[in-house]
Amino acid sequence: MHATERTGSIPGSYRPADAERWAPEPDKRPGRTAFQRDRARVLHSAALRRLAGKTQVVPAAPDSDRAASSDGWDASPRTRLTHSLECAQVGRELGAALGCDADLVEMACLAHDLGHPPFGHNGERELSRIAEPCGGFEGNAQSLRLLTRLEPKRFVDGPHGPVSVGLNLTRAALDAATKYPWHRDESPHDPDSPKFGVYEDDVPVFAWFRLGAPADRTCFEAQVMDWADDVAYSVHDVEDGLHAGYLAPAALTSPSERQEVLDAALARYASDAEPDELAEALDRLLEQDWWPHDYDGTALAQARLKDAASQLIGRFCLAAERATHAAYGTAHLTRYAAELVVPRRARLECAVLKAVADRYVMQRPDQARLRAEQREILAELADALSLRAPEGLDPQFRALYAAAADDSGRLRVLVDQIAALTDASARRLHGQLTGRPTGG
């Protein structure tokens, strides 16, 4: 392993080392760039398809609820998959405008949520508790594990037989998909942050693709992916909340509800802001002609809401594009040649949108009960699988469990198995193993 691949063409101003793969392999079809191959591998992965069964923010209503509704309206809320596709479109266009390879940025956006477990961030927190003896759980570190180990695509000979190298992406691709290039409890920005990008047993490949990278800096493509993610989910979570009827636009003019939104923004999304700054950011959005001041679900209202979403995405992306060009010029900006510049006004407006979704969608009274049930499902599932391992695991994880060197390694495999489940399959497997079916 570690040999270089230099047969695929290298786009733009990227270096040959950026196109190296952990395990060398020949091109199947001449003429494709290395990053086109990377994008195709993520797009065709089972891990990406599984995101269709993982909730983004608004859960899809069970069929029984839809059938019982008065009008049969199905708002078709976003899943992790549709969010990833929309994030990829936003990131591809912004990256291309800044001189990045568009396929590389799109690949990073498609890959950014692959490691998310069932039940979203609630599931992530419960799996972190379960996985504490083996180093915790973090969705971004799990994404790296999928890309480099768990997603079946390429195998190489190891000392004890064939070893999976996951999708065997290029060095630049793995770097672009890594939001948090540091170990657990080593965030350079916030010592208390639970975010990290690599588990201890995945350090070798992490060290390989980060070779020569400035310590603790994310590459430019990863910064574009990160902003595209923020833009996509802040805008679309509010859109889904309106579609689902959880948010009445007029609520944002109520002094008490407005204050709750601003408090959430300050507490969770913009802790460095002044309250007046956040109030001004909210006012700027409410003052726009295209802001959805009312919504009744009609075709006209839907079109206006879709226009508002497009206006917001354009507003946030153009702000970053113009500010970054102003700082670095119009040359191709790639890898570590620049930092993405997002104006403070845009960041605070984005934070306010996140807080709107937080207040009206995530903090609904029924959500607390649902989250408690979801944590119970994952905890009982971990216990049940542990008692039945390795026979009770899927064949892929059964083999990994048998090959694990110690209890820590075996627990990590159990967590890998649970993280791969969709929301529905987690409930179904829990019911099968415990004999207690749970609702959807």
TrEMBL record:
GO terms for biological process: dGTP catabolic process. Residues 1-39, 53-76 are annotated as: Disordered. InterPro entries: dGTPase, dGTPase-like, dNTPase_2, HD/PDEase_dom, HD_domain, PHydrolase_assoc_dom. Residues 17-39 have a biased composition (Basic and acidic residues). PANTHER family: DEOXYGUANOSINETRIPHOSPHATE TRIPHOSPHOHYDROLASE, DEOXYNUCLEOSIDE TRIPHOSPHATE TRIPHOSPHOHYDROLASE. Belongs to the dGTPase family. Type 2 subfamily. NCBIfam families: dGTP_triPase, PRK03007.1. This is Deoxyguanosinetriphosphate triphosphohydrolase-like protein. It comes from Streptomyces oceani.
